[in-house]
Specification:
Two copies of one chain form a homodimer. The first copy, chain A, has helices spanning about 5-25, 30-40, 45-55, 60-85, 100-105, 105-125, 130-145, 150-160, 170-195, 200-225, 225-230, 235-240, 245-270, 275-290; strands at about 95, 95-100. The first copy, chain A, has about 290 residues and is mainly α.
């Protein structure tokens, strides 16, 4: 059932990596730019896939959509690099490979993350993306999704949560994840409508539910997965005494919540008809990764 | 002679700080957003001043120019926060105050820097800035000036230079500083012309010379200044055995080079006539800070 989706995801990830190679090879090769190229390799590139699929639904071809797809992946990758730093989550493994500060050093990791964020804003502003209206809209919405009112705000809440697990509720975790993971996933799914200058609200509703389902799946993976399939350390949340959807809802409750959210995500796409099949499969896929 | 300029610089810095307060108070108040507000306070805000003065020369009022002025200062401030981290320059004092990782912690410093970079790209994309063409142009040029081909590239070279001082030449330091300090100063000075949709090349030539003069002055200050007037640790370059304009040209030679560059900067503004007096004074000011 998911063969078409799986192939499409793999194909998209390959295209995005190829474009990153081209763009990053245009910079002078120093450890920071080498680390950037290293960091964007691997991974499923779900955010980039959402951009390209959302764009296709709105009649926008991949030659234009590839740029905001790279922007979403550049923001995501920068946040992983900085999250992995010793002063943050202190992870030595990412996508099955040594993290940047392990392979190079911390300074290189800080700068490579910084420059990947900058690259994201260059990607959405490039003339190839479309009209100036579209590019300014993508830049503004990406900044809002990823900054102190979006992704970074979620990360800040996450740091605070490590010391406040007793007061955590499903609502507070929802609030945290809506920003930490959800905001960029939502921007990615909406970008296609923005590229077409059309209303992104249906894709917004889809990705809002998808983002939460994704995070619940991630929490389940942290409990049930093993290091070989996940490609990063597992069981860290429990070790840190961190409240997660699993610790608050139980494994069974978390799975049910994720299934409900996937149904909700698919419903939001009903008016797109059959064209949205690939995005529906994507929603099922995010929770199928482990159950 | 510099009274008008001094007052103008102070006035502009005040306006920029007031706008930062307003924008940053709109975010949920957590340590990261509090650290962002703390970090943008103080300093001369030379980059913001260059934006606003360059804009005035092109008939653009401060209500529009304040946004790219904040963007330049947000990028500058984020780079200082990350530069001060223990894994980079390991500074505990900035603008006479404890650095973010000292006052809060390293994770807060990483995230506050990250979110200030994002904020910069939000500032240039805001509808108040002007037409979509102008906003997309400012976003693209800012990304190119501050990323892996601009400021961060300069920082990467700077890290490498700490271990390669024997091979340093005036040309290699020029190349390093043109990116590390120069690119953002140049973007700041050019932003006014971009706001007006006009050719930024005269302001570009001015700021190219200004940026180098500024860095030479900074190197001299590191040798001659004291911690009270500079507001940060001094003598660090020599302690690190780092090649600077002073170590390569001598104090006298460095001073002469800075004076020549100021003259060059002022010449580039000749076609603006008397209107550019404030920018000419700014050029003199950057080297008058200490001699």
């Amino acid at each position: 059932m998911y063969k078409a989706f799986d192939e499409s995801l793999t194909d998209t990830a390959g295209q995005i990596e190829k474009h990153f190679e081209r763009v990053l090879s245009s910079f002078d090769q120093v450890p920071v730019t080498q680390a950037m190229a290293y960091a964007v390799r691997g991974g499923k590139k779900l955010r980039g896939f959402l951009v390209i699929e959302g764009a296709r639904l709105h009649g926008i071809n991949v030659e234009r959509a590839i740029w905001p797809a790279m922007a979403a992946e550049a923001i995501h990758t920068y946040s992983l690099i900085h999250d992995d730093l010793p002063c943050m989550d202190d992870d030595s493994l990412r996508r099955g490979q040594p993290t940047i500060h392990v392979k190079w050093d911390e300074a290189t990791a800080v700068l490579a993350g910084d420059a990947l964020q900058t690259l994201a804003f260059e990607m959405v502003a490039r003339p190839e993306v479309g009209s100036a209206d579209v590019r300014a809209d993508l830049g503004l919405s990406l900044a809002r999704a990823s900054g102190a009112g979006g992704m970074v705000y979620g990360q800040a809440l996450d740091i605070a949560a490590e010391t406040e697990s007793l007061s955590a509720t499903v609502e507070s975790i929802n609030h945290l994840q809506k920003h930490k993971t959800g905001a960029l996933i939502q921007w990615s799914a909406e970008a296609g409508a923005r590229l077409a200058g059309e209303d992104p609200s249906r894709l917004g509703a889809y990705s809002h539910a998808l983002g939460l389902a994704f995070q619940i799946a991630d929490d389940i993976l942290d409990v049930e997965g093993d290091i070989d399939t996940v490609g990063k350390a597992v069981g860290k949340d429990a070790d840190l005494g961190k409240a997660t959807f699993v610790s608050l809802l139980g494994l069974k409750g978390a799975r049910q919540r994720a299934r409900d959210l996937v149904a909700e995500a698919c419903d939001a796409l009903s008016s797109y008809g059959k064209d949205a099949e690939c995005l529906r499969q994507a929603a099922h896929f995010v929770i199928l990764r482990q159950f």
